[in-house]
Amino acid sequence: MDSELKEEIPVHEEFILCGGVETQVLKCGPWTDLFNDQSVKRPKLLIFIIPGNPGFSAFYVPFAKALYSLTNRRFPVWTISHAGHALAPKDKKIRTTSEDSNAQEIKDIYGLNGQIEHKLAFLRTHVPKDMKLVLIGHSIGSYFTLQMLKRVPELLVIRAFLLFPTIERMSESPNGRIATPLLCWFRYVLYVTGYLLLKPCPEKIKSLLIRRCLQLMNLENEFSPLNVLEPFCLANAAYLGGQEMMEVVKRDDETIKEHLCKLTFYYGTIDPWCPKEYYEDIKKDFPEGDIRLCEKNIPHAFITHFNQEVANMIADSLKDDLSKM
Q1: In terms of C-beta density within 10 A (0-12 exposed, 13-18 middle, 19 or more buried), how is residue 304 classed?
Q2: Catalytic pick from 81, 101, 139, 142?
Q3: Per UniProt, which keywords does this protein have (predicted)?
Q4: CA distances from 255 to 58, 91, 136, 146 (A)
Q5: What CA–CA distance (Å, rounded) separates 206 from 209?
Q6: Residue 259 designated active-site
Q7: How far is CA 68 from the centre of its chain?
Q8: pLDDT value of residue 205
């Protein structure tokens, strides 16, 4: 896709109060308020991206733009940050709705269960009930997606894509064996170290470091999260990661079986978070499912250099469904 074409695609940034926590939402396309839009031109479907951990929605902007263009700019593509992973700039207004759940209603909102309820709260307060959905979960976002289908089966989800899905045995994976002691046993050491190193650091230096790192990882865009090095956000990402290692153990076969017809799993061949054997196991248990193994050596963090390839796969898979809209 031509780079100039990507830049022409409108992306609207909002910070909203969701479950009592400020949350970044990036909306690709001209539609910014589906809930109150009663016009005949309102789209019938929303493509909703749920990120991995850390849950910085800005990292997924190039992917969202590619997907929006490949679906002929007919449907909005939105991505949401995880609760506590993005802070609004001081000059940015935070939108609230009268129906927003307060913080007490979502217990442990920065943890695994709270993050799932956080996404459901957003859909409940910002997306009409009659809106059809395509859910795209990446990494732990795949686990969230399955749980959302399980907890609210009345969601009008026509397809769900689980990309490089960390939905089982996370602590047993190659990366999990390294991350588990760090996130579960030495988490407070990481907190203190991060706070002591980053809190005194001048904002200009932090911004310079962040921009340089994002450039190297091919993640810089107009919404680059300059609070990536904010101790509060890093602590919440580590806290969520620790719960992932401890709680994402057994694959939820019951939910997979119930929703198998709308699920597409996309595993990597070089993924240290969900190795190839996890693909082989689920493929054996659900031979009739749409369970794919990437043949292009795309890494787990596909958003660094492979947005177009993954967007192409999803757009091709959606052609028949979207042609009926």
Answers
A1: middle
A2: 139
A3: Endoplasmic reticulum, Hydrolase, Lipid droplet
A4: 30, 43, 16, 7
A5: 5
A6: no
A7: 16
A8: 73
Active site residue 139: yes
Cβ atoms of 83 and 21 within 8 Å: the answer is: yes
User: 110: closest CA among 232, 202, 17, 289?
Assistant: 232
Looking at residue 196, what is its pLDDT? 62
Backbone angles phi, psi at 228, to 5 degrees: -55, -35
* Contact call for residues 250 and 285 (beta carbons, < 8 A): no
Q: Is the predicted pLDDT of residue 243 greater than 70, yes or no?
A: yes
Q: What pLDDT shows up at residue 1?
A: 47
CB atoms within 10 A of CB 58: 24
Distances (CA, A) of 239 to 46, 184, 193, 235, 246: 30, 8, 15, 6, 11
Cα separation, 33 vs 178, whole angstroms: 42
List beta partners, residue 46.
133
Q: What is the rounded CA–CA span in Å between residue 123 and residue 16? A: 13
Mean pLDDT of 39-54: 92
Q: State the Cα–Cα distance between residues 58 and 308, nearest whole angstrom.
A: 16
Cα-based distances in Å from 282 to 264, 297, 318: 12, 20, 22
28 vs 41: CA distance, rounded Å: 16
Active site residue 300: yes
Stated as kind and residue range, the H or E segment containing 216 is helix 203-216
Q: Which domains does the chain have, with CATH numbers?
A: 11-169+251-324 (3.40.50.1820)
Catalytic residue among 82, 118, 138, 300: 300
